[in-house]
Each structure stands twice: as structure tokens, then as C-alpha cells.
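hey can u check if this looks right to u? its 108 residues, i copy pasted from the old doc so theres a chance i mangled smth
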Amino acid sequence: MAVILTDAAAGHVNSMLDKRGQGIGLRIGTKKSGCTGYAYVVDYADEVADGDQVFESHGVKVVVDAESLSRIDGMEVDFVKSSLLNEGFEFRNPNVKDACGCGESFSV
């Protein structure tokens, strides 16, 4: 499968990479965190490391480390604006079995 971006997420990533002036795409992973188990980690991708999987979505490279892939395989990432001051990535992960009440962590 893959990790994909919506058109809105891809547009936001491209805009941020242009402002930054460097980078090859978006790096998405997971880390142990919170009361439920894992949290998402999102950063710029400047390189592809050994074991990384690279997907392309709407012209943007999405880089995922091998350890995180099984937890986020099939995930869709959107970029949403809920108000003038609130915007961010939204994760639609089909692997999530449970999430904490505050929305900061999840389990698979």
C-alpha cells in the first residue's frame, strides 16, 4: 500500500518546502508516546535513509521509516483549516484501533 496526501496536504507541503528553500518532501513516522502508545512525527525530508520507503502523492515525496510503516500503511494525510488561527495535518489511519481522549496518541 502507501501513505498518501490529499491535494490540500500536498499543496501545503510544496509551499512550505518553497519557503524553506530545501528538502525533498515530507517525512512521516511514529514514536512511542502518550497514554495509548504512539504519536505521529512529521518533519521535512532532506534525504532518504537506508530502509526508508518513499511514496509519491500529488507530486510530493512522502518518506516513511521502515519501523513506522506497518503502523501507518494505508494512511491518508490531509491539511485542514478549522478557523483563521487553527490549521494542521489530519491523519486518517485505517490501522488505528484506539486513540486517547486528547487525540495525541493512538494504538494499532
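Residues 36 and 106 are 5 Å apart (CA to CA).
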